[in-house]
Structures are given as structure tokens and as C-alpha cells.
């Protein structure tokens, strides 16, 4: 194997390792941040909605609950919303019927939500420490999943372009070095 080829392969291997490490670190950082944000947004939405409907739940004002559920579901990220009163009696619901028909299983984190592509959260409706029911809702993970997939594609494209540039410069550097070594050998 010639010195030129060894130089080019060495540079290519180093570049591949560095790019792979950068892609993994970038995806890990971005994925963790984005997934944590959407999970926190789901929990905050459930907490805020439970506060918003507490008076209507206590007074069993079903018309107000239906109105609040309908207006809250205008948020595109929300898949479904369910308001349960004392004893888990259904007081109001809205959203995707398929999601509402499934038994509610709260997701402990974002990774658990990837199976059905929605974050399912529950928050108690409490006043002065006393429970009056709960709010259950589902938030879509599709936006974050699409962002993560797009980031992977951009990272890979950047790595390919970077490796291509390094290959070109590696060939030039290898040619210059081997040319100078050849001139030194010929002169000796």
C-alpha cells in the first residue's frame, strides 16, 4: 500500500469516527431536549386544564365542560381529552374516538409514548387538597418524531458532505506529500 493511500485512508477513518461521534451526540442532545419539552408540555396542559375545569366539575356544569373540552381540542397536538368526576364518572370527552375507546394507561416518559405515538397523561382535579376527579389527555408525538427524523437526515447529509470535502483535501494533501517525498528521493 502506497504512502499516499495510507494517508488518505487514515484521514478518512479519523473523519468517519469524528462525524459519527458528532451525529450521535447531536441526536442524543436534540432528541432528549425535544422529547422532554413535549412531555412537559403535555403535563402542563393537563395541570392547567384541570385547574380550568375545577369549578365546572364541582358544580357538575356539563355544558361548560363540553365547551371547554371543544375549545381546548382546537390545539392540533391534542388527540383526545377526557374529564372524569368523582368515582371516575365520565363528565365530558372529545377528540379521536379510537383513542377514547382504548383503556387509559399513563405514560411515565416520552419513550413509553412512542408505541402509540401519543403521550397519555392524567392530572387530578383538586381543591384544598381534596380530589374531585381527574383530567386525562393525549398529546401527539408525531411532530417531535418528524423533527428527530429530519435532524437525522440533515446530520447524515452534513456528514457525507464533510467526508466528501475531507476526501478531496486528503487526496490533495496526499498528492502534495507524496510529490515532495518523491522529489526528495529523486534528489537523494
Structure description:
The chain has 188 residues and is of the alpha+beta class. It contains five helices and four strands. The chain has helices spanning 3-58, 62-72, 97-101, 110-113, 142-187, and strands spanning 78-84, 90-95, 118-127, 130-140. Strands 2-1-4-3 form a four-stranded antiparallel beta sheet. β1 (78-84) and β2 (90-95) form a beta hairpin. The longest helix is centred in the N-terminal third of the chain and has 56 residues, at 3-58.
In short:
By secondary structure, the protein is an alpha+beta fold. The chain is built from five helices and four strands, in the order ααββααββα. Helix 1 runs antiparallel to helix 2 and helix 1 runs antiparallel to helix 5.
Amino acid at each position: 500500500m502506497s504512502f499516499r493511500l495510507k494517508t488518505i485512508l487514515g484521514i478518512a477513518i479519523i473523519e468517519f469516527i469524528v462525524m459519527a461521534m458528532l451525529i450521535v451526540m447531536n441526536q442524543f442532545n436534540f432528541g432528549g431536549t425535544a422529547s422532554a419539552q413535549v412531555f412537559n408540555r403535555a403535563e402542563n396542559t393537563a395541570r392547567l386544564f384541570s385547574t380550568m375545569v375545577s369549578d365546572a366539575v364541582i358544580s357538575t356544569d356539563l355544558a361548560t365542560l363540553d365547551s371547554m373540552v371543544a375549545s381546548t381540542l382546537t390545539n392540533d397536538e391534542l388527540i383526545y381529552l377526557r374529564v372524569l368526576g368523582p368515582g371516575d364518572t365520565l363528565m365530558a370527552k372529545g377528540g379521536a374516538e379510537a383513542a377514547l375507546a382504548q383503556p387509559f394507561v399513563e405514560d411515565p416518559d416520552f419513550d413509553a409514548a412512542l408505541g402509540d405515538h401519543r403521550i397519555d397523561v392524567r392530572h387530578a382535579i383538586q381543591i384544598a387538597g381534596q380530589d374531585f376527579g381527574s383530567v386525562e389527555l393525549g398529546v401527539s408525538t408525531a411532530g417531535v418524531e418528524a423533527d428527530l427524523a429530519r435532524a437525522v437526515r440533515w446530520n447524515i447529509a452534513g456528514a457525507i458532505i464533510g467526508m466528501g470535502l475531507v476526501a478531496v483535501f486528503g487526496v490533495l494533501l496526499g498528492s502534495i506529500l507524496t510529490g515532495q517525498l518523491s522529489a526528495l528521493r529523486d534528489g537523494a
